[in-house]
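Protocol step 4 of 5: obtain the predicted structure for the target chain.
Materials: sequence only (see below). No template structures provided, no constraints applied. The aim of this step is simply to have a reference model before the mutagenesis design in step 5. Sequence pasted as it appears in the construct record:
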Amino acid sequence: MPHRPSKLSARLIGVVVAVAIAGWVGVPNTIAEQSDSSIHGSHAGTLAGAGKPVAALSPAVADPSAPSTVEVAGEVVAPGVLRLADSPSASDAADQIDMTLRKDQEESEEYDPWEPYNEKMFSFNHDVFDRYVLKPVATAWNWVLPDAVQRSLGNAIDNLAMPRRLVNNLLQLKFKGAGYEVTRFLLNTTIGIGGIFDIAKEAEVPRSDEDTGQTLGVYGVGPGPYLILPFLPPLTVRDGIGFAADLALDPLNYVIPFAATASRTAGQTVNDRSQNLELFESVEENVLDLYSGVRNAYLQRRQKAIQE
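Step 4 output (structure tokens):
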């Protein structure tokens, strides 16, 4: 006799269908609000480690002497120019700027008590691992594989990370984001042939990249000290815990041998690095203090992701 699905399986299928429907309902309202970024990933902002690209650094990071801008009340305020909407007086405008600067400084405060160790490990990751291992392999990879193949490989690996994004969207009560992830996975796995082609992007289904470190931050867990580990991208203690939890959310880790998992991770690292050779080189040439630049960019990006 054929086995009937268990009640638990039926409920799980019902939840997945409901989430997908919720995502489709919200697609028209948010397509215009979200733009797909060519630089993505849960740990972008490093020159070594997982091979993710460095996030765009502000002029102040790239060159401390360059003039910086501060966004206040939706307006861009340049040094010496006050353009605040609905400000009754110059003194009020100055007070508002001062409060904004203080708030930004507090939010992006660099808690780096392990800086001596971190700098040594950053130097190893960048000057040894990236320069003599990762970059040469990525350069050869880039020479052998066409760009289209590299993008397809990246799409397939990204498609497999759907459970991590789905679970964290649900934990953050971002039900539309969860719906988008289910919809993207179904489209890319079927029509996109296992995620090789990003059909969901062509269908303008937004991508919602959430991870466990971000979820912990949403629930009020502080970032803790900044941390650099060998062969890994920048982290904080909170994001390190989240990174371990994200690995546990990868279903392939339970069905394939460790060696195969390590090979997949290595392939992803090399593939990501090969797609950003020129970007990395440009950042290395223009950032004066690479360690501080990467740290600031990472901490600011993570804070922004949590606030969103």
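Step 4 remarks: Residues 1-5, 7-13, 15-90 have pLDDT under 50 and may be disordered. The chain has 13 helices and four strands.
Proceed to step 5.
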